Amino acid sequence: MKQPEDDGLTRRQVLAAVTGVALTALPACTTDRSRTHAEARTMNPAHPRMPTVYLPHGGGPWPFVEMGFGDPAELRKLATYLRSLATVAPARPRAVLMVSAHWEEARPTVMTAARPPMLYDYYGFPPESYQITWPAPGDPALAARVQQLLEAQGIATGASADRGFDHGAFVPLKLTWPDADMPTVQLSLKAGLDPAEHLAIGRALAPLRDEGVLILGSGMSYHNMRGFTRGGADVGAISAAFDAWLGESVALDAQARHRRLTQWASAPGGRQSHPREEHLLPLMVIAGAAGDDRGHTAYQGALMGARISAFHFA
After folding, report:
1. How far apart are CA 20 and CA 123, in angstroms?
2. Tens-place pLDDT, residues 192-208
C-alpha cells in the first residue's frame, strides 16, 4: 500500500518499517493431504499442547540496526520479551507456524521451501539492514499439513515455493531463536481482512497445537503510522483504550471472545488504532486456534507514545 510522502527522514523510515510485500500465490502444493489427524500424530513424537501467541514485532530491522526512533529502554524491553518466547511453551516446539501482518494473498497461502530465502520488505535503511540473515529451515510437510487442515474445513489454500521470510517473521524470530535452528513455515493473511474468516482459519489449525507446532501471530496491537509520527497524549490515550479492550476480550470464553473480536472496529479506539487492520488480523488467527483456552496479556510496553501488547493463550 502506498504510504504518504514525507520529507522528514524519521517519518520516512517509520513508514518504511511497516511496508509489506504481497506476492502472487503459486499453485497449491500437490503433496498428499489425505492423512488424518491421528495419523499425523502417529508420525510425530508426542508433544504437550503448545500455546498460541500474538506478538508485536516493532518496526523494520529495529533490534539489529540503529533506527533513530523509539526510546531505547522501550526497545530493550520488547527485545527481552521476544527472546523469552523461546521458553513460552512447555517443551521445545518441533516447528513454528508464523502468521505475519506483512503477507496477504487472495487465499491463505503457505511457504513450501525447504530453505526459505530472506525478503527485505522495507526500504530506506542503511545497507546492513539488507544483510541480516535468519537461515532457518522450512518444513514442507508442515506446509502440506496446514493446507490439509484448512481445506478440510472448506478453506481454499495456496502455496508458494519462493516466498521468503519477511521482517514480521525474521525480526522477532532472530531474537527468539538466534541460531536459526527452528523449522518455520509462514502462512499469509487472506485478502479482505475479514476477522471472522481469520478466526475460522485459526480454528481449523488448532490440531497443530497437539502436534508440537507453536502458532505465532506477528503484528502490532496499535498500528497507525500518522499516530506514531504525531505522538502526544492523544496517541497514548487512544492506544491505551483499545489495548484495554483487547485485554478484556482475549480473556473471555471462546464464544464471547470471538464475537467481540469480529466487532473490533467499533471498540474504543479501534479504528483509530488500526486505520488498516493487517497488523491486528494475526490476533484473530491466534484466538481461533486457541479454542477454549482463554488469553492473557503477557507483555505490555510502549512504542513512540503508543501502548503495545502481546497476548498468549494456553
Report:
1. 10
2. 999 999 999 999 999 99
Pairing of strands 52-56, 158-160: unpaired
How is the chain split into domains, by residue range? 9-313
Low-confidence stretches of the chain (pLDDT beneath 50)? 1-44
| Adjacent-strand bridge partners of 105 | 190
Name the packing angle between helices 254-261 and 233-250 (round to 10°): 150
Q: 106 burial class (0-12, 13-18, 19+ CB within 10 angstroms)?
A: middle
What percentage of the chain exceeds 70 in pLDDT? 84
Residue (of 281, 293, 298) closest to 252 by Cα position:
293
Residue 54 and residue 189 in contact, taking contact as beta carbons nearer than 8 Å? no
pTM equals 0.85
Pick from 192, 218, 183: which is nearest to 111 by CA?
183
Beta bridge partners of 26: 159
At residue 40, what are phi and psi to the nearest 5 degrees? Answer: -65, -40
Which amino acid, 181? D
* Ramachandran angles phi, psi of 302, nearest 5°: -140, 150
Count how many residues are written for the chain.
314
Compute the chain's Rg from CA coordinates: 18
Give the sign of the dihedral formed by CA 94, CA 65, CA 10, CA 105.
negative
229 contacts: CB under 8 Å, gap ≥ 6: 6, 10, 11, 14, 15, 304
Given a contact cutoff of 8 angstroms between Cβ atoms, the answer to whether 290 and 254 are in contact is: yes
Fold of domain 9-313: Protocatechuate 4,5-dioxygenase; Chain B (3.40.830)
